[in-house]
Structure formats: structure tokens, C-alpha cells
Amino acid sequence: MSTTISPNPISQDAINKALWGACDTFRGTVSADTYKDFILTMLFLKYISDVWQDHYDKYQQEHGDEPELIVEMMKNERFVLPEGSSFYTLYEKRHEPGNGERIDQALHALEEANGTKLRDASKSVFQDISFNTDKLGEEKQKNTILRHLLEDFAKDELNLRPSRVGSLDVIGNAYEYLIKHFAAGGGQKAGEFYTPPEVSDLIAELLDPQEGDTISDPACGSGSLLMKCGRKIKARFNSKKYALYGQEAIGSTWSLAKMNMFLHGEDNHKIEWGDTIRNPKLLDKNGGLMHFDIVTANPPFSLDKWGHDEADHDKYGRFRRGIPPKTKGDYAFILHMIETMKPASSSKLGGRMGVVVPHGVLFRGSSEGKIRTKLIEENLLDAVIGLPEKLFYGTGIPAAILIFRKNRLSREGGNPGVLFIDASRECKAGKNQNLLTPENIEKIVTTYKARKSVDKYAYLASFEEIQENDFNLNIPRYVDTFEEEEEIDLMAVRKDREELKAQLAELETEMDGYLKELGYGS
Asked: CA-to-CA distance for 239 and 242, rounded, in angstroms?
């Protein structure tokens, strides 16, 4: 099918507004947590349909008299679009009954035609997404809602042909825009699939991705943190020589990550579905855990029922330093990530790791205290960075970033200590959400790289000092942010008071004069 192309390029802002406007089709009918999957999936379908049609029209102009050649050329497209599965086919039939069933059939055909791109060994991207669901109401109401949705995406603002938008990033950015806005209104569930871009940017800067790196996130959500690391390499080295690996336990979020990767043009990725602690899927050819140059994650805070009962018999040896508490899985993720860092000898900078944690990880005792002690004694912990509160969706509590490295040696060959940074006041305050500014990020990164104490902000603690503190990493033990109150000059205050009393007496006299002139005086 051929469609009319607008000759005018469109801005990122216009695409974002049109997409957010399409959400009005669902508002008041279903919750945002439900309709986000419909909106994001329709964006994916619309984009690949527009790319397909754009390329088909181009080939037709060039080889119109050779239809067999065009068919063969279209088989080499990044995504194959089977007959009947295009957005435009669905749009043309929007007034007919059965919109939900037709959309589901189109998505199924798309999966079948594209093999492993839209599935892993046990799950397909659209498996948990059905447009033919009673969540949209009875058949007549459902058909009307989906007709409106198709009409929203057929608007000129959402003509996503490459010949018009010019860049894959425009579409990827639109996808990220939607995910961010859904996260902002998603309450507790938001943290399951989204790390704020500023936090991702900070972690990527701290981990310093290099060309050729393998990068892993064992709790990857929608994949934003992984892709931020990849984009750092593209920006610095003008290279796409890197590989992204992720695992995500929640099926619908895994689907978001897969679509997000393709919409950002990240073809060199492997995103697995499954529980990282109970069933790690990123394994080498011998069945052991894969090792990566960079390991990073924003795992669920203090996860209950993380797999404690199976940990004692973990065949990968991840819990040899101790088994985390049954109701707090923070160290389960940390220990898994530690085991997947490359040894220093097999990586240019050595394996390095950045993980977001709640502050309790820094000081809680019992089994967590023992694990923390061993990690420090093994010279793995590089830095502890305290972040402001209200940065993350779904929780207002402040968090910290822990940086671990495999090649930590001082110039003398010993333990170089641990750098503590208190960046808890480094943010732009908002009503419901605080924001790390570029200046905040630069200050943190510059301080981390300099690795020196900064008054009221950072402190490089020796191993002995941490040992004296019983391996408690609570940041105020090391970074003194106390501001002494300015000494009050009582004589100056008394002088100011006397001057104010004299001015008041003059005003009283002046006022009495005005009142007498008006006939109110005695």
C-alpha cells in the first residue's frame, strides 16, 4: 500500500506530543499500567510498517519493472513484514468488527516471520500482550477504542518513515519518552522497568565504557541503562563495536526491552527472560556464568522471596561469601554481579561494576555485614556514592551507587581504599521528583576520577579506617557535612535593635502629625 508522505520534516517534540495524545483513547477506560503495553506495541508496529513501506516505495521507483527483484530485496529488510500484518492493513479495516483479533494475528505473523529477533528460547515479545482482551470492555466498546487508536497512529504527526524523520534515534527517543511518562505515573511498579536517564548517564560515565566492551545488566528492565552505556561508546569512539547483554524476570518488561533495543538500532544484543538469581540465562558454552567488561544494574530494592532456599546449593558458587537474608535480596544481586565481572587480566580496564542500592546495604549487620566485610577485604569495592532522595520512580528514599573493580591497586601495590561521595544535596529539586543536572553529574564524575578528599563532599578512606568502623559504610561516618552555625555578634544585634527602635519612634511621631492634620488627634 502506498501512503501520502508529508514533505515537511517533523520534530521530536511533535512526535512525543502526538503519542501522549494517543493515550487519551484509553484514559478513563483502563489503567495506565495496562494501556502502556498497547501504546508501546502500536508504536513498534507503526514504525516497522513505515520503514517497510518507505523502502518498498523507494525500490519501486528504482525497479518498478522488476517486481521479482523488489520481492527479493525486501527479504533483506531488518524486519520482514508479512502480508496482512502492516499497520496500514489494520487501519483500512478499522471500521470492521474484530480489530482486536486482527491486531493480535498481525503481531503473531510478525513474530513468525522474524525468528529469534522477537523471541528467545521460551518466550515471544508479544506473548503477554493481547489487543483482543476484555480489559478494553465488551466487543463493541473494544472495537471502538482500537479504531480510535489506529486513527491516532495514522495521523500525519506519526508518519515515522525514515525519509521523513531521518534518524532511528527519533523513534527510540519517542519510545523512551513514553516509558518515562508511564513510569512517572506508575507508582511502585515503575521501578520494575525504568531507571531515570540521568542516573543511567551518571553510572555510564562512572564505568567508562570502551570500544569492544561487553556490557551486562542482570535486572535490565526496559534496557535504558544498557543502551546508555552503548551510546557512550558510540559518542566517544564513533563505533558500534560493543555487545549488550541483559536478563529480565518480568515478561512484559522483557518485551519492552526487546522492542526498545530494536527501535534504538541496537542489533548486537542478547536479552534473556527469566529470574537472574534462581535461573541465570547468560551462560558460556560450558554452562558457567558469562563474564563481562561492565556489569551494571538497578535491581529491585530489598526483594523479598529472592531465592534464599536454593542459594545454599547454588551451582555457580555465587554465595560462597555468605547467603543474604531471606527477605532482603540486595546482596544476592550484588554477589551475582561480582561473579560475572571479567578478571583484570582479560579486560582492558578490568571488570567493573556499578549497582544502585538502598542505604541499608551500607550498614545492615548479620549475614549482610559478613558479606560486605569480605568484599572489602578482597579489595573489590572502589567507591560509595550517596544520591539525593526522590530520584527514582516508585520510591522516595535516597539510594547509593556502589562501584566495584577487579584491578584495584594503589601505586604502592596495596589497597587504595574506598572513595565516599556524599552527593545527597546535588540535585534540582522538584515537587514530586528530584533531578540530577549535568552539572551535578559532572561534579560526581570529576570527584570520582580525581580520587581525592573534598571538604564536606568526599573522603578517601583507607582500609584501616573502614576496618576500625567495623566495615560499616554509612556515608556520614566518613564524609562530614556538618555546617557550623555562624557565631552571632550580640553587640551588633543590640546596636541594630537600638537603631530600629529609634526609626520606629520617628515613624510614630510622623504618624501622629498626619492624624492631627486630619482631625483625629487629641
From this structure: 8
Residue of higher predicted confidence among 76 and 277 = 277
Within 13 Å and on the Cβ side, how many CA atoms surround 400? 21
Name the strands in the sheet holding 214-217, side by side, starting at the edge strand that comes first in the sequence.
269-273, 243-248, 214-217, 294-297, 352-358, 399-405, 381-386, 418-422, 458-461
How is 435-492 classified by DSSP, letter by letter? Answer: B--HHHHHHHHHHHHHT--BTTTEEEE-HHHHHHTTT---GGGT-----PPPPP-HHH
Number of H helices, E strands in the chain: 18, 9
Cα–Cα dist 147/92, whole Å: 10
Residues 77, 204 within the same domain:
no
C-beta of residue 226 within 8 angstroms of C-beta of residue 254? no
Per-residue pLDDT tens digits for 14-36? 888 999 899 888 888 887 777 88
Q: Is 55 domain-assigned? A: yes
What's the predicted TM-score (pTM) here?
A: 0.85
Pairing of strands 418-422, 381-386: parallel
Q: Between vectors from CA 214 to CA 209 and to CA 216, what angle results, nearest 5°? A: 95
My answer on whether 255 and 402 are in the same domain is yes
Structurally, the chain folds into a number of domains equal to 3
Specify if 107 maps to a domain: yes
Final residue in a domain of this structure, among 139, 167, 185? 185
Asked if 260 and 381 sit in the same domain, the reply is: yes
Mean pLDDT within 105-120: 88
Q: Which of 294, 295, 286, 270 is nearest to 218 (CA)?
A: 295
- The predicted pLDDT at position 3 comes to 46
Q: How confident is the model at residue 162 (pLDDT cuts 50, 70, 90)?
A: confident
For residue 116, is pLDDT > 70? yes
Write the CATH number for 154.
Answer: 1.20.1260.30
Are both 405 and 434 inside the same structural domain?
Answer: yes
